[in-house]
Amino acid sequence: MGFFDDKQEWLAEVFAQYPADRRRSALMPLLRRVQQDEGYVDFERMKEIAELVGTTATEVAGVMSFYSYYQGLPTGKYHIQVCRTLSCKLAGSDELWHTLTERLGILPGEVTEDGRFSLQAVECLGSCHTGPVIQINDEPYVERVTKARLEALLEGLEQDKPLEEVRRTLPDEEKMGKATIELEGEGGAS
Amino acid sequence: MPKVKVNDRVVEVPPGTSAMDAIFHAGYDVPLFCAERHLSPTGSCRMCLVKAGAPRKGPDGEWITDESGEVKIFWFPKLMASCTLAVSDGMVIDTLSDEVRHAQSGMVELTLANHPLDCPTCDKGGACDLQDRAYEYGLDRKFYTRPDGEPVYTRYAFTKRHVDKHHPLSEFIILDRERCIHCKRCVRYFEEIPGDQVLDFIERGVHTFIGTADEGLPSGFSGNITDICPVGALLDRVARFRGRNWEFEQTASVDPSDASGQNIWIDARSGRLERIRTRENPEVNDLWISDAARFGHEWVNEDRLTQPMVRKGGSLEPATWEEALAAMRQGLEGVDKKRVGIVLPGDATIEEGMAAAELSKVLGSDFLDFEGRTGVPASNYPAATFADLLEADYILAVGDPTEELPIAHVWIHKRLRGVKMPPRLNHGTPIADLSIREHTPPDRSLLGAFAPHTTRVMEWAEASGVFEPGHAAAFFAAFEAALAGREPTEVPGVDPVAIKRAAERWQKAEKRVFLIGAEVLGDVQAAQLAERLAKSQGAGVLVMTPAANARGLEAMGVWPTGDRKGPRAVFIAAESAPMKILEGTEFRVFHATHLSPMVARYADVVLPAKTAYEKRGTFLSAENRLLALQPAHVEAGEAEGLVQALHLFGTALGLNPAIRFVRQAQQRFAERYKIDLNRLDAYGTLWRPRVSHAPRPMPMEGNLYLRPSMWKARHRRGPTVQRALGVLELATHPETALAEGLDEGATLEVETPEGPQRVRVVFDAALPKGWFYLPAGVPAGRMPFKALVPRGGEAS
Amino acid sequence: MSEGPITSGHDPRFSPTLYAHVGKPNSWTLDYYLSHGGYETARAVLTGKQPEEVVEEVKKSGLRGRGGAGFPTGVKWSFMPNDGQQHYLICNADESEPASFKDRYLMEDDPHQLIEGMIIGGFAIRATKGYIYIRGEYRKAYDRLVGAIGEAYERGYLGKNLFGSGFDFDLYVHRGAGAYICGEETALMNSLEGLRANPRMKPPFPAQSGLYGKPTTINNVESLASVVHIVQRGADWFAQMGTERSKGMKLFQVSGPAKRPGVYELPMGTTFRELIYDWAGGPTEPIKAFIPGGSSTPMLPFTDEYLDLPMDYESLVAAKSALGTGGVVLIPESVCIVDSVWNLIRFYGHESCGKCTPCREGVSGWLPQLFEKFERGQATHEDLKTMEDLLDQIEGRSFCPLADAAVWPIRGALRHFRDEFLHHIEHGTCAVKSGPRWR
Ligand SMILES: Cc1cc2nc3c(=O)[nH]c(=O)nc-3n(C[C@H](O)[C@H](O)[C@H](O)COP(=O)(O)O)c2cc1C
Ligand code: SF4
Ligand code: FES
């Protein structure tokens, strides 16, 4: 069965966002959906998407490989993306990255044996003031990833607790939320 | 028109011209890699940087002047890529200053940074744009001297990018990813010219490479990327490692596989035909030729007949030309001259057609025919040119342009993308035509496409439909009804809405072009309806004849008349001939390039023939354009041309035919039509001969439909073509297959005009039930489906 | 300080506008927005003004695009033809320039402000359809935007015949997928059309032939949000803030070792000193350099001369840098400049689209390798010369400005911290030894 066979309604919604003769615009949303649900986009899915948007598998491969988010190889249940650009680097993302590769025993492109984790170094996530920052799958960021917070995060995920819950219960999370409010009178968000 | 000053010369060029074309028009040079005639400019290689400036008008509408009262030039703050810069009136372009040369040499350095230095083993060597520019810009000075005293000419001291060096994209094309300089010509080509998006950039940044996810580059026009690749990244696998560019003898000729008249270069080396390349003809094929025209030449070098053969005691034995003449004399003795037939190949030249017609006249014979002849002569239709397609407000294709007249496919796509005929500049076609845009979707409202099977152009057609084979006449009847405002009559398989839509567009259009294929031409009734439609409504027609020179041969009077009983003796220069002739004649002379099973079985005398690549002569293409063939030097022993062979045949009959050499035919042609075939216009001469022949119905029955294909039987004798095309696909509706006990994927043999062929069954529920479709070369037609040795069952 | 232009966040006449609601509970809901006067400006515009009037007002305000290039927004709008074709308004929410994160909170905490800005912008350029191209990683902002658009449709603030004015406006969100180049406006349009995001040739400019070949305007999130307030309070209100040619307020960002890194809304012309010390609480460790306006802007030494520069387009150009997106990064003494710039070059190399030779071979291929050689301590004086030659060979010669954006940080570093490069050559090591930075 095709991936999209049982998603006709969703497909219709996506296509409705673009002019009727521009189905190709739906290429990215369709790729994202497969990536989200299956952790990567394999060749069969590329062909399926090509068919749906009216182009060739070659074109889909060309577009897909252009972006960092879509993966051609399977990823773990938690795909951890670590920002490595300057501001996060200044906050220690290099060491965070090394810790992660050692702690999990994997390099980019690999998945831990239990299928739980995979790793990717990514470029600036747009949260430079709260570095180092990581993003897991397509979820909101985990910011100010200190050693303690990283440990708590991994522990939570190893127990397969819901990500949102793990995020909420990370050490110091409360305090950070407050910091934003305190500053708001001065016109700042941090 | 804007006046532009290039260095010291002022030229006038049409508005919208690129600075690059202005530079060339002025007679100066500028380096380039990514710009390419007929493709959208992208400005990506940055090689063509120049310094440019333009005057400006003040608020008073007058040119702003400088202190000395001269019109002031405002220089662009950066160097500009001349391929993407449009000229404006008064523009000043500098291509010679140190600043410009230095920037260009910097770009050569960057381009070469990751380019391998394997020119000695590269097929493009000697014909490589990058090699030329590297020579021009490189090594002019050292960058610095190392502490040990060594001068440094190459600063990129890192390991070059190592990626796939021998990556077969298809059986025909090999990609060297290290050599690719990312000009994107090939990717743009596929999208913009044939409209097949089968090649794209993958990844990004320095990791970008070209690749495909559509196995085997499914396109009938893939080979052109090997011509336009400015380096040796994309190479013709059929011709790989067959010679250095400077070793080839290059002959300008015309492709003989279909009626489009594609201009080619034939590259031969040491008596072998090694490579076919495109030859630019902006009015016929631009820079493009079909894959069949490019890769379908391997058969020429294989197992050629190099001397005459004579049947002795049941078997064919090698003989001298004298012995062959004697054998013909003997075999033809006492034969009624009126019953001597001649069958020409579909790619016989005008000169050969004339020689045959003259001989036939002297013989008083009615039986003069050519392979791939249609039921109704192509000459009955007013010819359109390819350029007319660009002007057309509506195009109606009944047949399969992609396979039957491949270059028409390219022109149709051009029209739908809104591309105009380019202006002519001093250097010919503009190299960076700014009016061509990347990613222009085809305008579907301009095309209607109907055929007895699904065709490639149907994807671009607003109105389309598949009618059952044998129902072309019904289609035209319905179309006529729709034009007259009546409800269209029924056509099995076609939605009347589509017919109405097409008729509506047709009616509204002022300039119409009409393409008709073999299915229509084989059916006298359909062909006559089509003719009436074209003439009463005023439309130019591109007749997609199976024979390359159908119009030319018809004009020379090659057309069977009268006697239907058939000849007693026959001269056959065709690759295949109807059974009726083979079986019904007593003496058969073959003029053949190869000892095919048919020749081996039926010939009494075989004369070794030249292929169309080895001929001097003229074609009259589908556009009614006279195009000259030139002989390439291919070693084929004692092979002779058709004119000479016919002359000998006439001599054997005791005649003294007037035409013995091609030159004599050309003289006669010049006397008769006032056209010197040796002095045709650069892009061919349009000629509208007056021809009238009565239709000759063709046997068209049976449920095996021989779908036209650009690949002819002889092409398939080449090993690469054979590998590329694989086993022929026999397409059929699943129900029809199951009724015959055939499973999807089953391999079996079916009887075809070329003898039994191995085929593989594929299901296609979109096809009408009761039919089998098999791609075939000449002639497209129908015959009863006969499966031999079914090996059914095993799916592969 | 109550006369003359407002150029300090301390000026009593100044109060945050764009970020007024950022950080407030439920600020992203329609009810919250309506209770603070939301959509009243759009209503007034659609029912009482002509498109030309809006364009005029925005022109008069002096608003310059906040996406980095600083092109006057009103002027850009005036390029749109009045031709009855389908027009598009695209909001550039790709925000991928390192050190920029201002647009994110505008979308997370005040999505309706952006929607209202787009309605007004759409009206002004006669576009009945809008797209927000948001970078793929901004999941929270995406959720909030989609939620807000849903609410707006439900209550008639989007869709057909808005406020009974006869003007229709549809708004969609399109997510990116991790490619910085998609922030370049023509690459963005290609991305939105489902193509590889290579930049397109200009001309034709988007206003002639943009998305789907139709006239299109592309504006940054902050630019569009600013429009709401300009139209509401008048061009003069906006123009009294800032300097001669850089008007209004702007969102500035501080990252790196500061006490309170974050986003600060301040009048144009505010000094770096005020931003860094008064608002961001000052550095937490000794600083030697700062990047003034996002990663592509050449870095400046952390000295009084530069700290007292007013943050406006002209002053920074005069200092051989740029205001860019207003993203300030503090670079501490203990960090190697060569290493820091390498990080950025690697970023640009990774993000190069690969279309043009200088960027693909130079920015993406050669420069990062040269830097690596410096880092390894194997570089020579010739390598430094080669690097400088390469910068000349790349700058101003690429297809789009991405390659320039990669060149500038190196230029800045070489201008002010050449000694650190020389140290690498002569000693094979960094001039500074930085300890672990992760806590
Ligand atoms: C490489 C590159 C990246 C860019 N990234 C962004 C971006 O992330 N966000 C943005 O608003 N503008 C970005 N821009 C600027 C846009 O091309 C465009 O000028 C801007 O969106 C116009 O909006 P404005 O006039 O409101 O500033 C980028 C430009 C370039 C050349
Ligand atoms: S500078 Fe060239 S390669 Fe780099 S992003 Fe722009 S077009 Fe692409
Ligand atoms: S940029 Fe390649 S030829 Fe002009």
Ligands present: flavin mononucleotide, iron/sulfur cluster, FE2/S2 (inorganic) cluster
- What is the beta-strand fraction of chain C? 5-15%
Unreliable residue stretches of chain B: 791-796
Using only CA atoms, what is the Rg of chain C?
22 Å
Distance between the termini of chain B: 64 Å
Total strands of chain C: 9
Output the helix-strand order of chain C.
Answer: HHHHEHHEHEHEHHEEHEEHHEHHHH
Considering DSSP H and I runs of 4 or more, what fraction of the residues of chain B is helical?
10-25%
Class by helix and strand content of chain C? alpha/beta
Task: Provide an overview of this structure.
The complex is a heterotrimer of chains A (190), B (796) and C (439). Chain A has 190 residues and is mainly α. Chain A is built from 9 helices and 4 strands; from the N terminus they run H-H-H-H-E-H-H-E-E-H-H-H-E. Chain A has helices at residues 8-16, 27-38, 43-53, 57-66, 86-90, 93-104, 147-158, 163-168, 173-184, and strands at 78-83, 117-122, 134-136, 188-189. In chain A, helix 2 (27-38) packs antiparallel against helix 3 and helix 3 crosses helix 4. The longest helix of chain A has 12 residues, at 27-38. Chain A is elongated and about 50 Å long. The N and C termini of chain A lie far apart (47 Å). In chain B, helix 8 (350-363) packs parallel to helix 19 (642-652). Chain B has 796 residues and is α/β, with parallel strands linked by helices. A 7-stranded mixed β-sheet of chain B has the order 18-17-28-27-26-19-20. Chain B is built from 22 helices and 38 strands. Chain B is globular, with a radius of gyration of 29 Å. The N and C termini of chain B lie far apart (64 Å). With 439 residues, chain C is of the alpha/beta class. Helix content of chain C is 43%, strand content 11%. Chain C has 17 helices and 9 strands. In chain C, helix 14 packs antiparallel against helix 17 and helix 15 runs antiparallel to helix 16 (381-394). Chain C starts with 29 loop residues before the first helix and ends in a 12-residue tail after the last helix. Classes of the chains: A mainly alpha (190), B alpha/beta (796), C alpha/beta (439). The interface between A and C is large, with 62 and 72 residues. Strand 4 of chain A pairs antiparallel with strand 6 (262-267) of chain C, so a sheet runs across the interface. Bound molecules: flavin mononucleotide (FMN), iron/sulfur cluster and FE2/S2 (inorganic) cluster (FES). FE2/S2 (inorganic) cluster is lined by residues 32-35, 43-48, 81, 83 of chain B.
